[in-house]
Specification:
With about 400 residues, this protein is of the alpha/beta class. It folds into two domains: about 5-170, Phosphoglycerate kinase, N-terminal domain (Rossmann fold), CATH 3.40.50; about 175-375, Rossmann fold, CATH 3.40.50. It is built from 15 helices and 17 strands. It has helices at about 35-50, 75-80, 95-105, 120-125, 125-135, 150-160, 170-180, 200-210, 220-225, 240-255, 295-305, 325-335, 345-355, 370-380, 380-389; strands at about 15-20, 25, 30, 50-55, 85-90, 110, 140, 165, 190, 215, 260, 265-270, 275-280, 290, 310-315, 340-345, 365. The strands form four sheets. A six-stranded parallel β-sheet has the order 5-6-4-1-7-8, sandwiched between helices. It has a six-stranded parallel β-sheet with strand order 11-10-9-15-16-17. A three-stranded antiparallel β-sheet has the order 13-12-14. Helix 6 runs parallel beside helix 15 and helix 9 packs across helix 10. It is elongated, with a radius of gyration of 23 Å. It starts with 13 loop residues before the first strand and ends with a helix. The structure holds adenosine monophosphate. Adenosine monophosphate binds near residues 218, 289, 315 and 320.
Amino acid sequence: MVKSVESANFEGKRVFVRVDFNVPLKDGIVTDDTRIREAIKTIEFIKEKKGKVILASHLGRPKGEFKKEFSLNPVADYINSNFFKVKFVDDCIGEKVVNAVNELKNGEILLLENLRFYKGEEKNLDDFCDELKKITDVYVNDAFGTSHRKHASVYGLPRRVEEKYAGFLLQKEVNYFEKLLQSPDRPFGAILGGAKVSDKIGVIESLINLVDKIFIGGAMAYTFLKYKGYSIGKSLVEDEQLETVKNIYKKAEEEGVEIFTPVDHVCSAEFCGEKEIINDVNIPDNLMGLDIGEKTIELYRSQLSKCKTVLWNGPMGVFEDERYSKGTFEIANLLANIDAVVVVGGGDSVSAVKKTGADKKLSHVSTGGGASLEYIELGHLPGIDVLKE
Ligand code: AMP
């Protein structure tokens, strides 16, 4: 069990809070503040409990060097203008940081500069972890999206700290994924889409041990259809994965898991050219599949509405193009209206549910794409395991 911040005594302590402020910036302006908003509950809680709040995050991929465009300084300005008072120090380790932390009064908040300006962060180097430890009495993780990585601020530092807790955001993620992995209400359906089978093999294999039904969409559906002997025209296919798909079917049969694949398609002669509806599972030689068709949506709808738990990762088609977005958006709407625990993870499916407004009705929209997939695949994450030690 991870301990929640609610059980902690923060008064007078230096509380290192790993947040995810990896927000999009354009010309130094924050263009989407969702991640900041999501962290506020934990930050305010520690502040009210009179902790000295030290916020630490990464931003982008500066690859271990100071690069101005990846500075968290504009994020500090944005927070000061829009949310709460935060101090900023233009480094994340060293004397300057120790001094800034020493100056903090109870309930004050300090944001450190980008952790990834040091190679030690991503490489989890001992020296870097020891430096972070110098400013930490209590550790809090509220950055689910990086909890699958053994980075210093997510893994090495908490290993060195005795008192460690999950923030509210992380706790919510853990609650949903533990329920999904340990005692899901059944039937349990998983919808998998996106570009490649190869990216998701591990997850599919783990899901077969966990779910009752799997619904395939997106480009990866065509590798499944090709394996089943259907014509897929010019659709994207991973021939080297046909053997994997064969093993997936074999395992699914052994476990009694049903796999559903598209029965009709929205196609085009070229990538995102003029749209052609194909009311058949077979795709003519001159076309490629870019979205699931109406009959498939209906088939998936009838099956999914019987499910009591649904996990969704990956779009059903090239949803960035309106002509090939219907399958993805219909799935989003359908999930908003069924009586089931629905967990959506993965960047594209999350943006689809947000665009349709379905996110407000869903049980849980995960904040971590890679992290949520790895949680399902491995059944645990290093950044969460370390909080249990
Ligand atoms: P992923 O990152 O694996 O979840 O893949 C998401 C991407 O897959 C999106 O950018 C979609 O446009 C793309 N995609 C989904 N369906 C298809 C398809 N039928 N053909 C080509 N690309 C697709």
